[in-house]
Amino acid sequence: MNILVINAGSSSLKYQLLNPETGVLLAKGLCERIGIDGKFTYKAEGKETLDAVDVAMPTHSEAIQAVLNALVDAKNGVIGSMKEIDAVGHRVVHGGEAFNQSVLITDEVMKALEDCIPLAPLHNPANITGINACTAVMGKDVPQVAVFDTAFHQTMPPKAYMYALPYAYYEEDKVRRYGFHGTSHKYVAGRAAAMLGKPAEQLKLISCHLGNGSSVTAIDGGRSVDTSMGFTPLAGLPMGTRSGDLDAGILQYVMNKQGLNIDQMLDVLNKKSGVQGVSGVSSDFRDLENAFKDGNQRAGLAVDMFNYGVKKLIGAYAAAMGGVDAIIFTAGVGENSASQRLAIAGGLEFMGVKMDAEANNVRGRETVISAADSQVKVLLIPTNEELMIAVDTAALAKG
Length: 399
Ligand code: ADP
Description:
The chain is about 40% helix and about 20% strand. It starts with a strand and ends with a helix. Helix 1 packs across helix 3 and helix 11 crosses helix 13. It is of the alpha/beta class. The protein binds adenosine-5'-diphosphate (ADP). The site of adenosine-5'-diphosphate has 12 residues, from helix 10 and helix 12.
């Protein structure tokens, strides 16, 4: 079975063709500058790589057509014809309260996705455009599935997802914590259960997805019970350029002082804050580590603030669940930075977490990085959101 996984943005589109049964990746790539000029990237094992070559892409439909052309290309393709694509899985950022799992896309589902646009005005329209482009190019016979970043978190109880605001904001305007990165948290939780040889139902897990965007999730018995991102992905930890949680009183104060309107303020919080804002150096943790080594104290402070934020969430979620069996590290920083994992999970012996510095000295592969006698296991698990999307898509397409 071959599943085409699509992650459509407003001017870009990432794709992978993979087999969900074997996990084998046949080809992957990227369409960029859609609506501007169009650049196409394609990579497949043993085939010629296309690196940002010019392909006209006035709309997402031409981008999807370029993907299909490359996949079936006589010389560099990986399949004989489009018929070998069994289904298409789309990453959709926001499913609101309407979707607590992946769904087969129908006209009714498309309507519900449109209804979610106000909740994710930057992301959902692009996701919908990607779905429409696939329908236009591939026809209605190829099943398409929507996999939501928010769905996994729909199991949170009200005490975790409600904000202490007038209740009408929730009832009338759907203001609540939704959480994101759900596909990643779900995937690593499943892998953790496999690594520990226990059913997910018996495990209390804390999953730390630490990348450019970061979130931590408490997973009790296979269900998300709390997560650090909120109504939008701006909440929780300080991130590459996002502020994370802050005192809302600061907004009025800074807006008055700096003469900013609310859109400009939100732009600062989303794009000029986080570790970039504190360090003044970079949003990339590798740059920060290097800058700190060269004596830049603010770069060190930014990393310290981030690590401290993750450590506090681990403590909070262990308390919320009444214990924890395993802590998982995933995504760019979680998979690669041994020093940050040690800074975060070190010093937690009081709650049964004992790191093994040597075992921790790895990157990018499934490993236990806690000491043999650690009561709480600490796991490094590379995330694979595309595979999770392909698995869900295959299951729904098979009916
Ligand atoms: P996203 O998918 O949210 O864009 P990623 O999960 O790819 O982000 O993570 C990107 C982050 O991972 C960057 O800040 C990058 O610096 C960090 N990263 C990658 N490799 C390392 C490393 N070896 N040490 C520290 N950070 C790393």
